[in-house]
Amino acid sequence: MVTANRNALLIRKATASDAETILAGIRMIGDHLGTPHKISATAEDFRRYGFGPSPAFEVLIAEIDSAFAGLCLYFASFSTWRGKPGAYIQDLVVDTAFRGTGVAEALLRQTARHVRDKGGVYLRLSVDAENLTARHFYERVGLLHQPEEHIHAIYGDAFDALAGLDESGV
C-alpha cells in the first residue's frame, strides 16, 4: 500500500485531454464491481458531453506525485423541496494503490467546496448495494443512506419506447 503524502496530493479540474483517464477510472469501478461488461462509454463520450459550452458533468482528478490517484465525476442538480442547487456524484473512484490514504475523502471535500462555491447546499449519490466498503465510507464521512428513497431508472429500449409513447411531444 502506498502512503499518500498530503503535500503530494493534487486535486484539479479535468480537461478534455483527460477523457482517457476518466474512462480508465470508470473502468476501475466496473472491474471492482465485477461488471466491466456494463460499461459502454468511450473517451469520446466524455470529451463530447463533459467539455465545451454546456458540459453535462464536471470531474475532479486526484494525482499523487503526478500519478492518477482517483476521480470524482458529478453534475448539478436542484432540490425542489429545498429550493436550492446541489450536485449528484455519479462516480467516485480511487486507484487501488492509493486506497486508504485519504484520497476519496479529499475528493469529496473538494467536490463539496466546488458545489458550495456555485451556491449549492447538498451532495447526493447512490452506491451499489453490494459495495459495503463504499457504503461504510460514505456513512463515515456524513453521506447517510436515505431509507425513504428508492432509485428508479429506465435505459435502452425501454427508454426509447417511453420517449416515443406520444409522438406529439406531450
UniProtKB/TrEMBL annotation:
Pfam family of the protein (one): Acetyltransf_1
UniProtKB keywords: Acyltransferase, Transferase
Does the record carry Acetylation as a key word?
A: no
Molecular function (GO) terms for this protein are: N-acetyltransferase activity
The N-acetyltransferase domain, residue ranges:
9-170
Q: Which domain of life is it from?
A: Bacteria
Protein name per its UniProtKB record: GNAT family N-acetyltransferase
Q: Which organism is it from?
A: Metarhizobium album
